[in-house]
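Instructor's aside before we start: the two examples that follow are unrelated to each other. I chose them only because their records fit on one page, so don't look for a connection. First example below.
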Amino acid sequence: MRNHIIKFSVLAFIILLNACKTEKPKTKENDFSTTESPYLGQKPPGLIPEPFAPGLVTTLNWEIDGVFTPDLKEFYFIREVGEKEEDKKMEFVVFQYKNNQWQDSVISSRVGQPFISPDGKKMHLGRRYKERTGTGWSEIKKLDTVFMKIPIMRLTTSAKGTYVFDEMSEEGHLRYSRLIDGEREEPRSFGKEINTGKSNAHPFIAPDESYILWDGRRDSGYGNADIYVSFRQKDDSWSKAINLGENINTEASEYGASVTPDGKYLFFNRNVGKVKPTDKYENTDMFWVDAQVIERLRPKQ
């Protein structure tokens, strides 16, 4: 009996030692199949925005710019880490659905605002991008020189390959560049329907190019920065900008809107105030809401 106790004790010690040496990936407590619950196992929201994945994604630090791959098995976003102001830094993070679990890992320090192309083959990071490979993503590459000259914060693409992007400036100016017969055209400016007010930024073009989302500051807005939508009309012009309304926009700043690849949910960032009075910046959380908030604003034609 004594020998059995000694053997059990040694075995337990070995297991404990191995556990200490092995860093387990962070996962949600329960396993979820992507068919039943693809959004990190979260209960889908209704028409009122909710923080996305509290405690898992949304924390007391910054979380911004969340995007899914088309198969909904990878979720990329920017996260702030560090408790003290002098220790805080931004990380590029991914949650991946593997072995019936969502597992997160840090890719690198912040490299730009991520956007996954509708076909899943490119990850755009402002003026730079990565290409999908058999084992993950390529090294970062640069766009053509004409785009490198523009201080782009966010660039998104349609299924046709049209680029829609901003520039880092107080006024804010949104442009587009179409892919015509395989050739990339020179950047062109949107009209006053979109480029009105200040700080127009962080555009998102729908995969079918039927609408554009962006944020900006206008005298008629609810707060510092609001999210707007413009719909493509029958003559290919763009409708007058429509504010997404008081359920989305508040007295704070809402920005960085995008829609999930399946078209079901709108994601955006919202400033929610300082966690500590000594914090240099306000905390920003990621919210999601049913994408019907967009469809309800679409003009009937």
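Example two begins here.
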Amino acid sequence: MEVEKGTNLSDIENDLDEEPGEVIESAPPLEVGEERELGSSGIKKKLLKRGHGYEAPEFGDEATVHYVGTLLDGTKIESTRDGDDPLTIKLGEGRVVKGLDYAVVTMKKGEIALFTLPAELGYDNAAVRYEVELVSWIRVVDLSRDGGIVKKIVEKGERNELPGDLDEVIVKYRAALADGTVVAETPEEGIEFYVKDGHFCPALPKAIKTMKRGEKAKLIVQPRYAFREEGRDANEGFNSIPPSSVLNIDTELVSFKPVIDVTGDAKVLKKILKEGEGAWTANEGASVTVSYIARLEDGTVFDKKGVDGEQPLEFIIDEEQVIAGLDRAVATMKKGELAILTIHPDFGFGSVEVRRDLAVVPPCSNVFFEVEMLDFIREKAPWEMSNQERLEAAGKKKEEGNLLFKKGKLQQAGKKYDKAADYVSEDGNFGDDESKLARTLRMLCWLNGAACSLKLNDFQEAIKLCSKVLDIEFHNVKALYRRAQAYMEIADLVLAELDIKKALEVDPHNREVKLIEKNLKRLQVESDKRDAKLYTNIFGRATKKLKVEDEKR
């Protein structure tokens, strides 16, 4: 039977003040034979047989059910048991009775329950009972939110990962018109493509991005997400697609290879061929062992390690021992992981010709590495170290930073100083003598980091680092000097003057501070001239305006 015209999901929800599943989540599960009211809806549910799993259907899904409906006096009003086939209904449309849809969304697959529906949700304004078995259901999702791509999940996939735009997928599909005419079909093994490149029709990659490995789904695709008003000519032995055709596409996501944008600008891409073990990846300072084959775009092998009798390559992450792209990508790999790296010249060999073991790498070449992470030893974190180890590690990192600073490698030097300061942070349980040494190391690293930031024109970072030093040692001349430099660069001349005055109070003859004091005075004179000119222009315009107004009077 069908309910009165106009019944839909909103009618049901307006009659009920709780969402499907809310009672189940906030109360113990029903025991077999137990009856309970579903929220304040007036619907009572008595469990007759437990279902399987933990998932329940939602409004919009297609549920296949058997049911027997009776009046409260036992008079049968309708039943699917009289025939062999259960009924498939779209939940939320109220195809049987209003209350039944709400009842079904509280059930699990295979569950049998007896529902008592109040008159306003029952049959012809009469209270009724429905014994319902949820045989199965298909999840139905409106992917485009405009009805243009509707996905019915036929078979669930494995795991939780979904492919992204950059990933390479293997997909099997069969596309047909409404009358069943097949217009496209992949080989048995499927077809491989990158999601971002698209395939067949616009709906397919959109749907693929919502699917898990092994998932099978039916897609109902409206023309605007298929071949629109143009249609498609007969192709590869398949029939043509007429203009404005709706397509039914049976789809399976066989597998996919994740592609990671390592640098965030697509200049170093990592396509995972084999996933690694565990949760850890190599970190900055880790000692790694890898094997690889390196190729040019035409397939020419220009280098290889750890294959064909070659020794594997061992190097330390973030020490510039290999090209930046390889360094950055390997730092994201787990033990046993196998991946193909695509590296732009900016992170490869740049704009110069480079001779490698097996071939020459031409200028501005994209290069490709098939890399396997054989092993790595992570650098110890501060909390894994003794106090003495932390102090030694901080001193070592600071010296490494100093060497990089002398070579003009300022960003790398800054990272070393940051790492050194982390080793001797205030959360360490240092003794008195150790605490003094840790504090000194920490301040030296912040001061050196500020020097890097000044040269890199990162003036706010320089101010922040100098301020950390001054919080500990308010009269530190170097910190005042460098912070004053940063303030001058951002035209905060008042604060710069304050820092210079404090520094000269501590060290009146400091040559460097006196030099920037001289520069500050020059900047102040220039600033005063600009201000004077600005005010002259403002007052000049105002005077001229008043003169014109007086003449009009």
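The first strand starts at residue 35 and ends at 37.
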